[in-house]
Every structure is written in C-alpha cells, then in structure tokens.
Amino acid sequence: MANIFTTSIGKKLIMSISGLFLIIFMLLHTTINFFSVLDAFRGTWGAEDGWFQLGCDFMALPVVNVMVPVLAAGFLIHIIYALILSIGNFKARGGVKRYEVNSRAKADSFASQNMIWLGIIVLGFIAFHLTHFWADMQLQEFTGGEAENPYMLLERTFGQWWVVALYIIWFIALYMHIGHGFWSALQTIGWNNMIWLNRWKWIGRIIGMVIVLCLTTVAIVSYIQANGCCCGC
What we know:
The chain is mainly alpha-helical. It has one domain (about 5-225): Up-down Bundle (3 helical TM bundles of succinate and fumarate reductases). It is built from 11 helices and no strands. α2 (about 10-40) crosses α10 and α2 (about 10-40) runs parallel beside α11. The longest helix is centred in the first third of the chain and has 35 residues, at about 10-40. The chain is globular and about 55 Å long.
C-alpha cells in the first residue's frame, strides 16, 4: 500500500482519481449555478423559491456540508501530486512535460503540454472565486453568520464586464484542463485501448464544453441582470 504514495504509477493514480472526483463536483456545481439562468428566463430571479436559491439551500444542508472537508482534501491532494509529478518530470526531462504518457506522439496537444500552467490559472481563479462566493455563503453558515443572497452575489461579482471577461478566460483554461485530464485519468487507470481512448477524449471534450458553456452563460446573464436588463422581460 505504501508504494501507491511513492511510485510514479501510484502518484499518477492518486492524481487521476482525485481529478475525476473534482470533475464530478464541477458538474454538480455547474448544474446548480445554471439554475440561476433558468430563473432569469422564468422570471424568478431573486425569488425565495427560485431554483438557484433552492439549489443553494440544498448545498447548505448539514449532510452536504460534511462533504466540504472531503472536497477540500480532494483539491489539496490533486494540487500536491500535480506539483510532485511536475517537479519530478522537470528534473528527469529538463523541463515541465506531460506526466501521463511517455510517447511524444500522444502528447501533441496544447493542453497536454501545458497542464501544469492551465492548472495554475484554474487554481488562481478558484481562489478568487472562493473569496467572492464561498466566503460570503458557506463560510458564513459554518461560523454562525448569515449567508448573503446568492442572486445578489452573482450580480455584484459579474456586474462589471471585465470580471466577466476574466472568468471566461478561467472557463477556457478549465475546459482545456478538464478535456485533457478526463481521458488522461482514465488512461492512467487502465482504460486505454485505442477504441475507448478516442471515445474518452470526445467525452472529456463534451464534459468540458458543457461546463464552460453553462458557466459562461451564468456569468453573462448575471451581468445582464446586474445592469438592469431582465431576461424574463
């Protein structure tokens, strides 16, 4: 069992499993946030019975809140092992290279050659995102404070066009990171025959695209709402 933490294959496996766990979380997170777009078109933006509000209330349930430390651990494990593998490759190959495969022919995409940098961009925006949403909602509930209205947080965060533009940059980096990381993780696990590998690549791209398009729509609709144009009008 100790070898899984010390061998190269073991480290890649931990990296892959934690990455797949985070992708599942992102799908849930995206779904709940996209409820705000549906609220805008349903005319229930800001309503107590709005779907986005109900989704936030669900995420605030104690049974869900106990998953927060697990999620944080998943992020930390993924980040730590990404750094360990990248540093190891830097020493072994003279530069930051892709850790999943040895064949240069399989590592010909921009995402595969820049996973660590894409990860750094994603991590930076996650930190920014946490200070604007998690700190004013879940953290307040943890500390006995009062969580802010989620619709108002969306409007306040995305009320300026340049913030929306920065988030879109994040979403693009997230798309490339997820699109490549998904099939690469499954390859590390062992599901890497040529038929399914190509399918996993397409599934990874689709998952990444769905997440990015939904989150981009959330940002744009929130900007519209914040600047006085109601989508439901």
